[in-house]
């Protein structure tokens, strides 16, 4: 994320603008009016919520200090606001704020989930030097969990393999993705997932880039690969449909700010 400094404690003597992002599970509090700035102003949040349980620092972006507050109640909310899935923020915000809001959710969720030690059940405390929670009794430490997942475009000459996942909330088609299992190299994950989900064998697996994807605390590690052999045979538990698409015949695509979309656009650019 550009122009972003992560913070573990609130900035000292800060006189700039502050914003508190309010979360309830996967949702974020936004203004009901979708035309203006979607994130409610600091004053609105401060006047409504009890902030004695201090919001968790996230960081400073473009001179604005952001922190996160997790609330249990999603019915009692400030006037003219509503809760919305964080993933849908891309419709009304820029890329930086979209990721910042995702990161805020990830951090506040971790902060709420690990208030107690998983080993002995005592209270944990946050550290001021790094993002870790340490048990006050046994010293067990818990860092934010990040799950590595591969995502891969598979091309066959002028075509790209895209699939519609059964968990997608919209009828989008995307490149294939899957979590890395213990003991696997990333390339092995690519081969296994593509084979499991579509029955296609791939070759020439090349690294493309990476993207933290905070909506499930994942790290997406992207690859490109070429079709080797096989016919499409979908795993109908995870995939509803899959097919080969040409640049002039693309279906509905995933979120613009996702690396999945970048992989697909990379294929389109190379084809032209
Ligand atoms: Zn403990």
Nutshell version of this structure?
This protein has 272 residues and is of the alpha+beta class.
In words, what does this structure look like?
With 272 residues, this protein is an alpha+beta fold. The chain folds into three domains: 109 residues, Nucleoside Triphosphate Pyrophosphohydrolase (Alpha-Beta Complex); 31 residues, no CATH class; 125 residues, Nucleoside Triphosphate Pyrophosphohydrolase (Alpha-Beta Complex), CATH 3.90.79.10. The protein is 19% helix and 35% strand. The strands form three sheets. A six-stranded mixed β-sheet has the order 1-4-5-2-3-6. Strand 4 and strand 5 form a beta hairpin. The two termini are 29 Å apart. The model has no long low-confidence stretch (mean pLDDT 93). It binds zinc ion. The site of zinc ion has 8 residues, from loops.
CATH class category of the largest domain = Alpha Beta
Question: Mean of residue pLDDT?
Answer: 93
Number of strands: 15
Structural classification = alpha+beta
State Rg.
21 Å
**Looking at CATH, which topology of the largest domain would you report?**
Nucleoside Triphosphate Pyrophosphohydrolase
**Helix coverage percent of residues?**
10-25%
> What series of H and E elements makes up the topology?
EEEHEEEHEEEEEEHEEEH
Largest sheet: 6 strands, mixed
Q: With helices defined by DSSP (H or I, 4 residues minimum), what is the helix count?
A: 4
What is the beta-strand fraction? 25-35%
Summarize the SSE layout with pairings.
Blueprint: E1 4-6, E2 17-24, E3 27-31, H1 42-48, E4 56-61, E5 64-70, E6 81-85, H2 95-113, E7 124-126, E8 133-135, E9 141-142, E10 147-156, E11 159-165, E12 176-179, H3 186-198, E13 201-213, E14 218-229, E15 239-245, H4 259-271
Parallel strand pairs: 2-5, 10-14
Antiparallel strand pairs: 1-4, 2-3, 3-6, 4-5, 7-8, 8-9, 10-11, 10-12, 11-15, 13-14
């Amino acid at each position: 994320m550009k122009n972003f400094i992560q913070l573990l404690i609130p900035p000292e003597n800060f006189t700039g603008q502050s914003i508190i992002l309010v979360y309830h599970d996967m949702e974020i509090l936004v203004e009901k009016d979708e035309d203006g700035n979607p994130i409610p102003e600091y004053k609105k949040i401060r006047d409504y919520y009890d902030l004695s349980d201090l919001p968790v620092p996230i960081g400073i972006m473009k001179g604005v200090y952001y922190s996160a507050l997790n609330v249990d109640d999603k019915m009692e909310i400030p006037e003219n606001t509503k809760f919305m899935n964080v993933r849908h923020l891309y419709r009304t915000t820029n890329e930086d704020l979209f990721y910042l809001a995702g990161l805020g959710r990830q951090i506040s969720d971790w902060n709420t989930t690990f208030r107690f030690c998983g080993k002995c059940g005592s209270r944990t405390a946050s550290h001021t030097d790094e993002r870790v929670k340490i048990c006050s009794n046994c010293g067990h430490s818990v860092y934010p969990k990040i799950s590595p997942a591969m995502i891969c475009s598979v091309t066959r000459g002028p075509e790209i393999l895209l699939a519609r996942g059964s968990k997608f909330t919209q009828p989008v088609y995307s490149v294939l993705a899957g979590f890395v299992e213990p003991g696997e190299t990333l390339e092995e994950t690519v081969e296994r997932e593509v084979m499991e989900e579509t029955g296609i064998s791939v070759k020439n697996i090349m690294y493309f880039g990476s993207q933290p994807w905070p909506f499930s605390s994942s790290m997406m590690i992207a690859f490109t690969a070429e079709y080797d052999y096989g016919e499409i045979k979908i795993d109908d538990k995870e995939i509803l449909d899959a097919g080969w698409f040409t640049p002039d015949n693309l279906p509905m695509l995933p979120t613009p700010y996702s690396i999945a979309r970048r992989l697909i656009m990379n294929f389109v650019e190379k084809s032209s």
